[in-house]
TrEMBL record:
InterPro entries xref list: EmrE-like, Sugar_P_trans_dom, TPT_transporter
SUPFAM superfamilies listed in its UniProt record: Multidrug resistance efflux transporter EmrE
Pfam assignment, any one: TPT
UniProt name for this protein: Sugar phosphate/phosphate translocator
Entry's localization field: Membrane
Keyword tags: Membrane, Transmembrane, Transmembrane helix
Membrane topology designation: Multi-pass membrane protein
Species of origin: Iris pallida (Sweet iris)
Membrane spanning stretches: 17-36, 48-73, 85-106, 112-132, 139-156, 162-179, 200-217, 237-258, 265-286, 292-309
Length: 316
C-alpha cells in the first residue's frame, strides 16, 4: 500500500545514508517477500495461499499496533464513525482479494511473468479512475498505456511457463490493487476521514483476518492440521511462515517511510526498477526458462509505465 500524502523536503547530506538505507530495506523486503511466497507456494509445496495471506495480515495487525501505539512511529488516528469503518472494511475486502489472487498466481506462474503482469497496474488505475470519478487524464497519458498493455500481450505469448488460471489470478490481483487505490481516494477523501497508510493498515489488517479466517477454513480443508503435521516433519516451515509474515509487514513499513522521506513519485520510479531487479533475481534463483520475446514484452511494459509516470507528472 502506498501513501500519497506524506512528502517531505529533500534531506541534507547527513540524512542521505538514512534514505539509502530505507530504500535498500524497501527493496530487500519487497523482493524478499515475493520470492519467499513463490518458494513456499510453488517449490516448497505449501499450497495454501489464503492461509499464507491470513498469516501476513495477522502479523500486520500485531506489528501495526506495536509501531503506532507503543513505538509511536506515526500518531494514532481514530475511526470517527461507523460509516468510515464500513468504508475501511470495503477497502480491506478488495485488498484481501488482491493479495490472495497474487499469492494464488505465484503457484502457477514464475515471478518474472508475475512482475510483468503486475507492471500494468497504472492501466487498471486509469480505467477505474475514468469509470468511477469525473477525473480525466490528458490524451497523451492514455496513449502511454498502449505499450503497457502491448508489452504484457507480447510477454504472454513468449512465456514458456504460461498458465491460463495463474494468468487470470495475476490479472485479478493487479486490477484489485488498482481498484483499492482508486477506492481509497474516493471513500476516504474528506479531511476528517483521511488516514495515512500505517493507520489504514492498522484497521484494515484485523478486518482482513476476519474475512480470511472462514475462507481458509472452508476452502483450504484442514490447513491448520496439515501445517502442524508439516512442522513436526520439518520445523523450518514454522520459521519460513514467521519470517515471511514479518517481512510482509516490513514491506508496508518501509513503503511508508520511503514515501515520507522522498516522495510518492520517487517511490513509483523505484518501484519500476524494483520490478526489473525482482525479475533478474527470480530467474537466477528459480532458474525458470525465459524467452527473448517475453523479456522484450516486459521491457516494453516498463517503458510504457515510465512514460505514463512522466506524462502524469507533466500534466498535473
Amino acid at each position: 500500500m502506498s501513501n500519497k500524502g506524506n512528502t517531505s523536503p529533500a534531506l541534507p547530506t547527513g540524512g542521505r545514508f538514512f534514505t539509502v538505507g530505507l530504500v535498500t530495506s524497501w527493496y530487500f523486503s519487497n523482493i524478499g517477500v515475493l520470492l519467499l511466497n513463490k518458494y513456499l507456494l510453488s517449490n516448497y509445496g505449501f499450497k495454501y495461499p489464503i492461509f499464507l495471506t491470513m498469516c501476513h495480515m495477522t502479523a500486520c495487525s500485531l506489528f501495526s499496533y506495536v509501531a503506532i501505539a507503543w513505538l509511536r512511529i506515526v500518531p494514532m488516528q481514530t475511526v470517527r464513525s461507523r460509516l468510515q469503518l464500513v468504508k475501511i472494511a470495503a477497502l480491506s475486502l478488495v485488498f484481501c482479494g488482491s493479495v490472495v489472487s497474487g499469492n494464488v498466481s505465484l503457484r502457477y506462474l514464475p515471478v518474472s511473468f508475475n512482475q510483468a503482469v503486475g507492471a500494468t497496474t497504472p492501466f487498471f488505475t486509469a480505467v477505474f479512475a475514468y469509470l468511477m470519478t469525473v477525473k480525466r487524464e490528458a490524451w497523451v497519458t492514455y496513449v502511454t498505456l498502449i505499450p503497457v498493455v502491448t508489452g504484457v500481450v507480447i510477454a504472454s505469448g513468449g512465456e514458456p511457463s504460461f498458465h491460463m488460471f495463474g494468468f487470470i489470478m495475476c490479472i485479478g490481483a493487479t486490477a484489485a490493487r488498482a481498484l483499492k487505490s482508486v477506492l481509497q481516494g474516493i471513500l476516504l477523501s474528506s479531511e476528517g476521514e483521511k488516514l495515512n497508510s500505517m493507520n489504514l493498515l492498522l484497521y484494515m489488517a484485523p478486518i482482513a483476518v476476519v474475512f480470511l479466517l472462514p475462507a481458509t477454513l472452508y476452502m483450504e480443508d484442514n490447513v491448520v492440521g496439515i501445517t502442524v503435521a508439516l512442522a513436526r516433519e520439518d520445523i523450518k516451515i514454522v520459521w519460513y511462515l514467521l519470517f515471511n509474515s514479518a517481512l510482509a509487514y516490513f514491506v508496508n513499513l518501509t513503503n511508508f517511510l520511503v514515501t515520507k522521506h522522498t516522495s510518492a513519485l520517487t517511490l513509483q520510479v523505484l518501484g519500476n526498477a524494483k520490478g526489473a531487479v525482482a525479475v533478474v533475481v527470480s530467474i537466477l534463483i528459480f532458474k525458470n526458462p525465459v524467452s527473448v520475446t517475453g523479456m522484450l514484452g516486459y521491457t516494453l511494459t516498463v517503458i510504457g509505465v515510465i512514460l505514463y509516470s512522466e506524462s502524469k507528472k507533466r500534466n498535473k
